[in-house]
Amino acid sequence: MEDIHTQGIWMAESLQKRTMSQEKIWLVITHIGDPKAAFLLVFPFAYFFSKRAGVAVLWVAAISEWLNLVFKWMLFGERPFWWIGESRLFVNREPNVLQFSSTCETGPGSPSGHAMVTAAVWWVVVSTLGSFLHSRTHSVVLSAAPYLLYVVMLVAVGMSRIFILAHFPHQVITGSITGFILGVVLSRRVPEGRPLLFFFSFSMGLLLGTLLLHAGLQQLGVDLSWSITLAKKWCSHAEWIRLDTAPFSSLTRDCGALLGLGLAQYWKPGGWSLPWAPRALSLAISSMGLYHVNRLPLPVRPQGLFYSLFFIKFIIVPQVVIVLVPGLVYLFTHKKKKD
Questions:
Q1: Which residue, among 49, 56, 55, has the nearest Cα to 276 in the 3D structure?
Q2: Running DSSP on this structure, what letter comes out for residue 76?
Q3: Where do transmembrane segments lie in this chain (predicted)?
Q4: What is the pLDDT of residues 184-229, one digit of tens each?
C-alpha cells in the first residue's frame, strides 16, 4: 500500500499545483458531495419533483452513509493529510501541498464517504430524471444526459477530495463504485407507506447494533479512535477539527433521518398533493428552513448531549420537507382558491 499511497500524494500535489487558482470551486464541489448535503439539499429538491424519489434519496443516503461508517471501521483507511507525516517517507522531499478547512475529517479514509454517498444518492436522482425525460420526449439523447452529468459529478467530487488531501485516489474510486451499486440496489425497494414501527425498529436497530459493534471491537483491543488522534495531531489548524465529521455524527444523522422519515409518513401518509407552483414555493421555503436548522449551534460538551441534539436535528429534517412546509403552503393556496 505504500506505493499506492505515495503515488496518491504526488497526484494530489500535481492537482493542487495545476488547479490552485480554482481552489474555491473545488471547495464548493466537496461541500456539494458532503453526505450532509444529501439530507439538506438533494432530499428537498428530489421530494418536490417526485415524492417517491425524495423518500428514496433519504433512504439511500442514510443506509449508504451507515454502511460507509462500518466499512471505514473495518478497513482502517489512512488519510493523506496525516499519512504524509506518519509514513516518514518524505524526509528527502517534502510534498508541496496545502490543507483546507474541509481537509481535517476525523474518521478513517476508506472508502470515501463523499464519493460513496454521492454516487448512491445521485443515482436515484438521475435515474428518476432520465425516466421522466424519456417518457416526455422519447429522446434517447435527452434521457441519457442526466447519466453523463452523473459521471461528471462523480469525477469532480472525487478530484475535489484528492485536491484537499482528504482522500487517496483509490479510496475515491472504491467509494464511487460501491455507492453506484448501493444506489441501484436500494432504490428498487423504497419504504413508502411502511408503518412507523418499521422505521423506529430500523433506526434503533442501526443505532444499537453499531454501538454494540463499536463496544465489541473495543473489547477485542481495536482502537477505533486512532483516526481522531491522528487527525488532531496532523491538522494544520485545530479549529478545522469538527465534531460533526466524527463517525458517531454520521451514525446519529442516519438514524435520526430514518426515524424522522417514519414520523413524517405517519403524520401525513402520502404527503400533500400540490400543483407545480406551490411545490416550487414549498421547495424554496423548505430549503431556507433547513438552512437555518443546519446552522443551529450545538454544544460540543458533553459529547453525549451533542450527539443527542444532532439526532433530533435530523429527525426534524423530514418533518419540515414532508409535513410542515407543504402543509402550510397547501392551507394558504387552498384558502386562496376557495376565496
A1: 49
A2: -
A3: 25-49, 56-76, 115-135, 147-166, 172-190, 197-217, 305-332
A4: 999 998 998 899 999 999 999 999 999 999 999 999 998 889 999 9
Secondary structure of residue 135 in the 3-state scheme: helix
Measure Cα distances from 177 to 38, 117, 180, 201 in Å: 18, 11, 5, 29
Q: Distance between CA 203 and CA 259 in Å, rounded?
A: 6
Element (H, E) at 93: none
pLDDT > 90? residue 22:
yes
- pTM for the full predicted model: 0.94
Here the cell at position 155 is 469525477
Write out the H or E segment, with its range, that includes residue 178: helix 169-186
| Domain count across the chain | 1
Active-site annotation, residues: 114, 167
Q: Would you say 161 is a known binding-site residue? A: yes
Range(s) of the domain holding residue 184: 2-338
Q: Please answer whether residues 108 and 174 qualify as being in contact, where contact means their C-beta atoms are separated by less than 8 angstroms.
A: no
Round to whole Å and give the CA distance between 61 and 69: 12
Q: Which three cell numbers stand for residue 95?
A: 510534498
- Structure confidence by residue, pLDDT tens digits, 116-136: 999 999 999 999 999 999 999
Q: Cα separation of 307 and 301, whole Å? A: 10
- Identify the band that residue 94 occupies on the pLDDT scale cut at 50, 70 and 90: confident
